[in-house]
C-alpha cells in the first residue's frame, strides 16, 4: 500500500507519462522510495516530482557514485512556473550533501537537452544505433550444433555474472547491481521484453542481449548487446531473429569508432563535486597541466580555482597572482573531463 505522497506521485506519473500501467506498478513497487523522492506540493497535492537513483560508474580508473534523476515531471496545470527548476536545484544540493560527484539523466524529449543544459548538464552519453538485417548475415542464420540459444525469464546468477563482468570491463560505464538486475527482469516481464544468451558447448555464456518490443514501430529493439567477439554478437542476433521470426532488429550499442554514422546523444551528466573528479582525472592524466577558474551557478560552493599538475589537483577559493586561469562553467568542465572517455549508460528504465 502506497503512502499519500507515493500515491500522489504515482498519480502524477500517470498524468505526465504514457507508460504501461504494469510498468508503473513495477516501478513504484521495486524502484521508488520516499527517501529518493523530491516533490513540490501546492494546494495540498503533489504537482511536481522527481526521484534520484544511485548507480556506481566506472570512471578514471575506479568507481564513482552517481545520482540518476528519474521520473522528473510537472502537472500540466502547473508548468512554466519554474517549479521543476527549483526541484532540480534541491536535487543537486542533496546530491552534493550525500557526496556523489556526478548527477546523470536521460532527457525524455530532444528539446529537454537545452533545458537541462541551463542547469549545468552536458551531453556526454552517446550511443550508436543500427539495423541488424538477418538477410545480410545468412552465414549466421543458424546456431552451430554446439551453441545454445536460451531465453531467461528469472534470475540466474551465471547470467548476471556475465553481464556484470562485461559492464565492469567498460572503462566509463554506469553499472548495475544484482538488485538492479532483478528490477530489469521485472521490467522485461511487464514490457514485452526478452533476455537471450548464447552459450558454447561447455554451457559457458558467450553473448547476451536484452530486447524490448517497440509497439509504436512494431520492431524489436536491442537495448544491451554484449558478446565475447563481434562474430558471436552477430550469431546471437541472427539466432534471435530465427527464434522470434523477424528479419531485422534495431540495435543500440556503445559508440563505435569505425561507425559510418555519428553517435546519437542519449544522456547528460553534471559534475557535483568537482575537486573529487578533478583529482581522479589528474591522477589518470598526469601530463595535463592546467589552471581552471570554475563557475557553478547552481552550486556556488564549487566556485573557485583548480590547478592540475603532475597527477594532482589543488583548490583555492582565491586566485593567485602568478597563475593564468582558463574560465569554465560547470557544464564545460563536465564535457571536458569526459570528452575522451566514451561514457555509456544502458538499462536505466528510461
Strand content: 25-35%
Determine the number of helices (DSSP H or I, runs of at least 4 residues).
Answer: 9
**Approximately how much helix is present in the residues?**
25-40%
Question: What CATH first level of one domain would be assigned?
Answer: Alpha Beta
What spatial form do the alpha-carbon principal axes imply?
globular
Radius of gyration: 22 Å
**Low-confidence parts lasting 5 or more residues at pLDDT below 50?**
none
| Name given to the CATH architecture of one domain | 3-Layer(aba) Sandwich
Pattern of helices and strands? HHEEEHEHEEHEHEEEHEEHEEEEH
**Cα distance spanning the termini:** 25 Å
Task: Give the total of beta strands.
Answer: 16
- Stated plainly, the CATH topology of one domain is called Aminopeptidase
Strand-pairing-aware structural class: alpha+beta
Report the CATH superfamily of one domain: Gcn5-related N-acetyltransferase (GNAT)
Largest sheet report: 12 strands, mixed
Average pLDDT figure: 94
How does this model look, in words?
- The protein has 350 residues and is α+β, with helices and mostly antiparallel strands.
- Among the domains are: 128-154 and 182-253, Aminopeptidase (3-Layer(aba) Sandwich), CATH 3.40.630; 274-329, no CATH class.
- Helix content is 30%, strand content 33%.
- The chain contains nine helices and 16 strands.
- The relative contact order is 0.15.
Quick summary:
The protein has 350 residues and is an alpha+beta fold.
Features:
350 residues; alpha+beta; Aminopeptidase; four-stranded mixed beta sheet; 16 strands; globular
